[in-house]
Amino acid sequence: MKPVVSGLDKKYGDRVAFANVDYSSAENAALLEKYQVLGHPTYVVLGADGKEVERFNGYTSETDLQAAIQKAASSASQE
User: Residue 59 in contact with residue 41, Cβ under 8 Å?
Assistant: First the structure.
């Protein structure tokens, strides 16, 4: 999925922020708890208001991930 996410970052990075969080790092425990990440890969797409737009637990298709990112990007442009 890294190449897929990297490609989506290049396509939407000017409108959407991407963050990669190391699931195994103790430093990220609070963040993983905040977003209720129970396994990996987990993709949490947040809107400009910080609210969850969509969540994917496990592998997902590029099409579904892109649709969620477009939804988040369009909600940001409406604000």
Answer: yes
Asked if residues 47 and 76 have their Cβ atoms less than 8 Å apart, the reply is: yes
Write the CATH number for 69.
Answer: 3.40.30.10
The C-alpha angle with vertex 33 and arms to 1 and 62, in degrees rounded to 5, equals 20
Number of domains within the chain: 1
How much is the pLDDT for 3?
A: 87
Give, in degrees to the nearest 5, the angle at Cα 65 between 17 and 54: 75
- The tens digit of pLDDT for each residue in 12-50 reads 888 888 888 998 999 999 999 999 998 889 999 988 888
Answer yes or no: are the C-beta atoms of 56 and 39 closer than 8 Å. no
Q: Looking at residue 76, what is its pLDDT?
A: 61
